[in-house]
Write the structure tokens for this entry.
Amino acid sequence: MDTNSRSAAIAALRANDREIVLLSHSAALLSWDQETCMPRKAIDERSAQLSLLQGLIHERTVARRNGRLLEELGCSDENPRGDGGLPTDDRAFLRQYQRRYRRATRLPRDLVVKLAEKTSRSQAVWAEARAADDFRAFAPHLGELVELLLEVSDRIGYPQHPYDALLDEYEPFMLTSHVDRVFSELRADLVPLVEAIGRAPHVDNSMLRREFPVQQQAAFGTAVMQALGYELDRGRLDVSAHPFTTTLGADDVRITTRYSPRFFNSAVFGIIHEVGHALYELNIAEKYRGSLLAEGTSLGIHESQSRMWENMVGRSREFWHHFYPKLTARFPDSLGDVDLETFYRAINAVRPSLIRVEADEVSYGLHIILRFELEKALVSRSIKVADLPEVWRATSRELLGVEPQTDAEGVLQDIHWSMGAIGYFPTYALGNLYAAQFMRTIEADLPSLWSDVRDGEFGPLLGWLRGHIHSHGRTRTAAELCNDITGTDLSAAPFVAYLQTKYGDIYGVR
Amino acid sequence: MDTNSRSAAIAALRANDREIVLLSHSAALLSWDQETCMPRKAIDERSAQLSLLQGLIHERTVARRNGRLLEELGCSDENPRGDGGLPTDDRAFLRQYQRRYRRATRLPRDLVVKLAEKTSRSQAVWAEARAADDFRAFAPHLGELVELLLEVSDRIGYPQHPYDALLDEYEPFMLTSHVDRVFSELRADLVPLVEAIGRAPHVDNSMLRREFPVQQQAAFGTAVMQALGYELDRGRLDVSAHPFTTTLGADDVRITTRYSPRFFNSAVFGIIHEVGHALYELNIAEKYRGSLLAEGTSLGIHESQSRMWENMVGRSREFWHHFYPKLTARFPDSLGDVDLETFYRAINAVRPSLIRVEADEVSYGLHIILRFELEKALVSRSIKVADLPEVWRATSRELLGVEPQTDAEGVLQDIHWSMGAIGYFPTYALGNLYAAQFMRTIEADLPSLWSDVRDGEFGPLLGWLRGHIHSHGRTRTAAELCNDITGTDLSAAPFVAYLQTKYGDIYGVR
């Protein structure tokens, strides 16, 4: 293929991608509005609007012409970036384009429709089953979902494990065997750490359940997010039942939070978490603007950004050295008698619990390992759906030392499986591992990092993240980023060391 | 054509219409968001998203297949509702479908693109020209727009006057000659009425410029809109620079307003006005749901609803008999010393002024007649663009007795022409005329109308409007509605009589 036809082929794929991106962002606005603004009764028409847009996106994704152009450019599973002669950015574009095309075209229409219907129905069943603590009502639906997902996995294909194809949806290009490896390391060190903390004297965090008027929380949260570099001329903060970040355009990345008037943590740490996601999408290089490269490269890397800002920065002594005086000024009645160190320890209190979304930074990973083990076993057919509650209880006791008394607090607690999102959970824990591994390089590159944070200066950290992670968008995979930045593959060691140092200090354990 | 093929053809057109409606409502959400929520810097990507959606809507509107199906069904300019054998609702659907198809396909792509570019550019030029009071900067752009609109008019075709084709965009099926007739009647009676009021003792309305805290205005406005029957499970109220109503789905019709902390009228009367528009769209019969029939039938009829609620109901003694105690309770400092009658006279004060959007109910129509006369003259080429400022001043003196000292307060005051919206202005005044003519029938049908309003009961009026106007959507034209309801064509007499009675009482004039 000569240079001219190559350029024409790339241009055609880029034009097609541009339409997909514009339609996807339009659909994202419809979803954002549904969660934040939409009047209650508008749901039926909104579903029809979204489903039409999704159909238009799908048509454009799987168009036969795309496949022909990819072939002409020499793209294949073995050579996803096409001919060697292409410029680097084109090759990065083709790799992501080819991946999307391949995944979309390998699933027959029937299967996609069945899966959509099944997940829509299963979510309703799951909500009722959880409310009634009735796993048996949900089990047959989950069983059918697992079968459908196994068919998805077969159709898409996988290098080693059928779970690979499911994981790849959320953490592109990562293999199950790699997750296995890092989660084994993590488990080996976390279980004794959580046990040791459990034996140490209790850290009081009751003051976080005092009165925190919502308007004051919003004002403080807004001040924090702006200090971190999230600007309201390219984003906004709204309220929704479940916090999320959504990209509606290159200059429009919005976050949401929820306020609890009698619990400090949810809104402010939620905002910092979502700001971490938003800063990633807002700082992708201009040259990828409006294309499929202008997104976070994997959910794991995305989560590394939200968790670095939320936990490593937002729950550090240095961060609160700067912000705590501003916080007590807003909440003199609830925090006037609490000193910085007491507050710092409270927001980092560790208490193994049953519910993942309420878990602390230390035990969180064990909640994920529990789900990952069960998902893998389901997908390998080594356990049956009916056995899940029992296996859940046993594994929970093993990992966390606690055992749910009801399935509502156990195997039914998360919505993910009812949505067909098997393969999603690992990304939450991978985020923590990536963040800690990146942080070693950051601390080496920015010796004044923590004194900057102490001074309320977040520009140097954001600048580093922009240069090394954000700006690249999806041109680098998670593994490539990790190797480029840290010189090695992802491992659990830096995260474990981070936890041991931080919580060794707070709890006097090792 | 046999019944089966006829049903298939109608079904195909309805499916095509359904996609157009879903895409149009999605685009409307993008526009709503742009005016109410969107971060400032998101504008470029938002424009690209909207222009893609508009393109998809256009493709679906002008698809050749639609023309073939319309032909098969016997639709033509002479017979827009197709074969006599079709059910009434199908014939009503075809009339509107055929009108949309005809208007869209008669304009060549070139002309549409030129017009879009020209109006986008002209709006920016107009804004600067108005700020600088420099009509000459705007004139050449307006000149080119008029030429383009004349081409539009030629392409679309018109029965008598080239203005017919432009007017038809906003007031479908109405002819310029009819507007001429009713505006002449209106002018003949309004000019002396405005003069007589000008000679009568001044009505004090200075208390409306006291302090009205925005939060209290919002709470009061929300209570009023709910009392009128606008429910927040099918709508919402937001803030925007220019108030508007927008339909985002059968159960999602949103309004906006703007608050001025030192002027009572803008927010509350603005809300009542927009609620009038919203109630129209929310009360269309279920059977037209999600189709092109589920819209107001013309801007004039739409405006009849907003102005009936805002002026005839919302500025009546009876309305404030019910609401005034609630209002003074919210604003005791500003209205505690003002009695109901004084307030009623203040909100109905008449003062001929230069600016249309600030005009009272009596002189408003004269502002519209001024614009209509100038538009007609431009389109007939009987005046030149360069002469507009002088003609504006002369006509303003004639009609309103006042003359602008600057073009910013004169010919440059409205955005409409810069948007290419020639033919739009008449619908504002037609709304007042329709409202007054309908009100005669309503008062005959509902003898307790005004005592209901006095009691804060708006259900009977809304029920009447739903049954006689709203529910029909676009199955009846404005002229058909008017004849069905009042037994005659639109005339200015009922509106003039309404004004003479109301303002005769307030100002002691005849």
